[in-house]
Amino acid sequence: MFSKNINKKLKWSGIHFITGVILLCLLGLFIINVWFDNGRYLLTDLFGLAVIILSLDLILGPLLSLWLLSPIKSFKENAINISVILLLQFSSLGYGVLQIDSQRLAYIIKWQGSYFAVIKGDSRKGNNQEQFYTFKEPAVGSELRASYESLIRNSISPIEMYEFFIPSSFERECETMCGVITKKGNVIVTKESGKLKFNKSLR
User: What is the DSSP letter of 22?
Assistant: First the structure.
């Protein structure tokens, strides 16, 4: 009897694991092909973050199933337990997806002759559309200078000061290509068929 119970628990946990693998693979394909397409994954440590978050979610559910579900428990008890497990898993997955979403490209800003890729998690802007901008520092003595200096005192980087951004475009800034500074190093940005593409090299 004990052996049968263990086998049943392992079977349920295995089904949970396989179902989780399938769902996470589908979610991963969506994230890579829609949110981080054309090399956008090069702009941040997406894979390291995704592996930690998704692996945790993948391990959490089956382990809880193995621990809490049992054929000797009533249907009601198992139903309550699986509901709690799924709630925890979806909450964990939702948090993970939000963290991954925060790594998406917000905009590219030209500051002091260099281009910087800023991700959503580091952006102060409410509306981010992968726009190119140039930073224009307010002149000393101008009305906006006091606001600029206040932001500096609050440790806000100029590449986050959208109040002083001037909209630009890839064509105006890069013509055919330009190098962009990211947290993961320098990345080459080009434009093909109207879409921005990111590469570590020109090859």
Answer: H
Per-residue pLDDT of the chain (203 residues; tens, 9 = 90+): 556 677 777 787 888 888 888 888 898 899 889 999 999 999 887 777 777 777 777 788 888 887 777 777 888 887 888 888 888 888 888 888 888 899 999 999 999 999 999 999 999 988 778 899 999 999 998 889 999 999 999 999 999 999 999 999 999 999 899 999 998 889 999 999 889 999 986 55
Tell whether pTM > 0.85: no
Cα(35)–Cα(54) distance, integer angstroms: 16
- State whether residue 188 is helix, strand or coil: strand
Residue type, 57: D
- Full 3-state SS string of 92-133: HHHHHHHHHHCCCEEEEEEECCEEEEEEHHHCCCCCCCCEEE
Q: How many residues does the chain have?
A: 203
